[in-house]
Amino acid sequence: MTEDTPLGPLPDPDGDDELSPTARQLRDALAARAAGARPADRLEEIRMTSRSNRRRSRAWVAVAGAAAVVVVGGGGYALTQRDGGDVTTVAASTSPSPSASASSASPASPATSAASSAPEETPAPDGTSPAPRGTPRSTPAGSVATSAPAGAALPSGSATVPVYWLGGSSPKLFREYVRAGDAGADDATRALRAMLAGGPGDPDYTSPWSADPTATVTSTGGRLVVDLAASAAAGRAADATAAVQQLVYTVTAAAGSSDPVEIRVDGRPEPTLFGEAVARTVARAPQADVQAPAWITGVTPGSGSVTVTGVGTAFEGTLLYTITDASGAEVAREAVQAGANGTFDDFSFTAQVGPGTYTVAVVAPDESGGEGATPLADTKGFTVS
């Protein structure tokens, strides 16, 4: 109803206009009340109330789903960022309640899916560096922010730990998984000590650091604190900035954290490394700025074939691989898809080759028409019997 409807006095039921004073007052009061009533459209109000209820319902579902993902396979898990931005799950120190464990056992639950996608670190074949099985897909640096609570225990007990090395004339970071000692230490400390000790599996990789078996990593106040001896960073480095990023990437990858790194030398902040002053706290530089555009994580020779896996990024995601024999003759050349335009992602390919000794190289092709720097390739040797 969109127009006002006039309402007069209520009719006399008997038609004799002989109402008592009380009845007449009541009739007139009701008539006045009715005259002031204005009908309203409640449809929009009802719709708004319904939408609000649905939003509250969805919010509770989202909270419940997030809680379910935290409880996986009888143990607590925390979503972390490691290995150049890769998102993995790292076992936490707490255990779920019996009811939570029971609810996570359903094959269709989000928790089961999260557990099945978590990579397991396994040694790679002879001649290659150990690599994680089921390497997760990378994400752009900064897209996932993960931080361990202040003073939290760092992950420990991994069979292998990630260590970054330098390679190329303008040093870039390459990652290997290594079997590290110091079984009683946390993974970040083990990875740091392995990096300082040197000895990359690929002879093309280098490191300017020196051994320090007492170096440590702790988590406190929203940062990772590295304490090492002055002798570990003595002398000069070809690129001190790259060397510092090598340390930062190694420590944060092994810790499963994106926290900035505070570097102390013999317990003192504001360190000098390789003769250069370094900021007290250093964060990871963007992946595309410091990581090699492609590196090989595994080479598996088979019967008349070889399977190669790795991580990389290239224009429109297209890397190039070549395989050469012992004489240097090229026996295979193909494109392979990885991450695109600065976003790192996994790649894998299988090539058919006969018995013999070979070298496989993976590179991000030069898109500058020869005007840019020579593309940086990663190479690995292998033998097919």
TrEMBL record:
Biased composition (Basic and acidic residues): 39-48
Top-level taxon in the UniProt lineage: Bacteria
Signal sequence, renumbered to the chain: none
Entry keywords, A to Z: Membrane, Transmembrane, Transmembrane helix
Record Pfam families: Germane, Gmad2
Residues passing through the membrane, by range: 59-79
The protein's name in its UniProt record: GerMN domain-containing protein
Low complexity biased stretches: 28-38, 91-125, 138-153
Disordered, as annotated region: 1-59, 87-153, 366-385
UniProt-listed InterPro entries: GerMN, Gmad2_Ig-like_dom
Keyword Lyase: no
Start and end residues of each GerMN domain: 188-274
